[in-house]
Amino acid sequence: MNPQSAPIAKEESQMRHGSSGNGHAVPPRYLWWLAGGYGVWCSALVVLYALQAIGCTFAWPTDTLRLSLVAVFLAHLAVIGWMWGHVAKALPDPTTGPTGALLRAVIVWTTVTAFVAVVLTFAPPLLLITCI
Predict the structure, then answer these.
(1) Quick check: 111 and 80 in contact, CB under 8 A?
(2) pLDDT digits (tens, 9 = 90+) for 62-90
(3) Cβ neighbours of residue 38 under 8 Å, at least 6 residues apart?
(4) 34: left (phi over 0), alpha (psi -120 to 50) or beta
(5) Separation CA 115–CA 113 (nearest Å)
(6) Please, which pLDDT band fits residue 31 given cuts at 50, 70 and 90?
(7) How far apart are CA 19 and CA 60, in angstroms?
(8) 6-26 pLDDT, tens per residue?
(9) Is residue 114's pLDDT more than 90?
C-alpha cells in the first residue's frame, strides 16, 4: 500500500463507519433531557383535556372544574420550570467537548420553547367556558 494513500483510506473508513475521529461521546441521558420538555407538554395536553372531559361528563361545578384545570396547568408549568432551571444552572460537562456544550444549549432552548408552548396552548382555554 502506498504511504500517501493510508490517510485517505483511514478517512474513507471513518466516513463509512460514521466516525470523524474528532467528536466526543455524549451520554444518552442528554437526549432524554432534550425530549423532556415536550414530553411534559404532551402530558399536560392529555391530562388537561381528560380532566375537562371527565368534569363535563359528570357535571362538576364550574368553579371546581376550573380550579382543577388551573392546578394541573400550574403543576405542569412547575415541572417544566424546574427542568429549565436545572438544565440552565448545570455546568457543561468538559468531557463532552463542544458537542456537549452545543447539545446543552439546544436542551435549554428546547425546554424554554416547551414552557412557552404550554403557556400559549393551555392558558387561553382556561379563560373560556369550561363545558358547553
Answers:
(1) yes
(2) 999 999 999 999 999 999 999 999 988 88
(3) 110, 114, 117
(4) alpha
(5) 5
(6) confident
(7) 59
(8) 555 444 444 444 444 556 777
(9) yes
Would you give the DSSP letter of residue 90? Answer: S
The three cell numbers of residue 85 are 432551571
CA atoms within 13 A on the CB side of 81: 7
> Would you state the cell numbers that stand for residue 24, as one nine-digit string?
466526543
CB under 8 Å to 16, separation ≥6 — which residues? none
In the chain, at which residue ranges do the beta strands (DSSP E only) sit?
none
- Other beta carbons less than 10 A from residue 102's beta carbon: 13
Q: How far is CA 62 from the centre of its chain?
A: 32
CB 43 within 8 A of CB 120: no
Residues 6+ apart with CB under 8 A from 8: none
pTM of the predicted structure, to 2 decimals:
0.75
